[in-house]
Amino acid sequence: MFKTKSKPFTLEEYPSGVCVKTDTGYWYIQGKYKRKIPSKRIFLSWSFPFVILVTDESLANLVRAKSLGFRDGTMVRAMDGTVFLISERQRRRVTNPDFLKATGTERKQIPVVSDKELALHELGKDLE
């Protein structure tokens, strides 16, 4: 996703909220947990201001938690065309076209995501 020429950096403790890259991929640090960022689409939804290059060994003391999903406020489209808004880590189906109009979003601008990416978010109440 990013090309970097810097050498791996090691901290005794990584601050919560940072994104790091190791040989095994991208990770989101959340306190004592590390959460795998499973896709480029999920990575891009977070708009991380920077990514720290680290070694897998430097994250060994962190507990692996559920993979990171899309950032709240992200609109995504399922393979079948259904549009969802991610809100409070849930996927909420957009059932009213006026919602898209109110946000200034055209359906073709909304990224199509995999079922596996959607499954990272429980199904929430429809947005009517």
Strand-residue fraction?
Answer: 25-35%
Shape: elongated
- Measured between the Cα atoms of the first and last residue, the distance is 36 Å
Number of strands: 9
Largest sheet: 5 strands, mixed
What's the number of domains? Answer: 2
Stretches with pLDDT under 50, minimum 5 residues: none
Structural class: alpha/beta
Measured on Cα atoms, how large is the radius of gyration? 16 Å
pLDDT averaged over residues: 92
Short structural description:
This protein is α/β, with parallel strands linked by helices and 128 residues long. The protein has helices spanning 40-46, 97-103, 115-118; strands at residues 19-22, 25-30, 33-36, 51-53, 63-65, 75-77, 83-87, 90-93, 122-123.
What does the model show?
This protein folds into two domains: 1-68, no CATH class; 75-123, no CATH class. 14% of the residues lie in helices and 27% in strands. The protein has three helices and nine strands; from the N terminus they run βββαβββββααβ. It has helices spanning 40-46, 97-103, 115-118; strands at 19-22, 25-30, 33-36, 51-53, 63-65, 75-77, 83-87, 90-93, 122-123. The strands form two sheets. It has a five-stranded mixed β-sheet with strand order 4-1-2-3-5, with no helix packed on it. β1 (19-22) and β2 (25-30) form a beta hairpin. The protein starts with 18 loop residues before the first strand and ends in a 5-residue tail after the last strand. The mean pLDDT is 92.
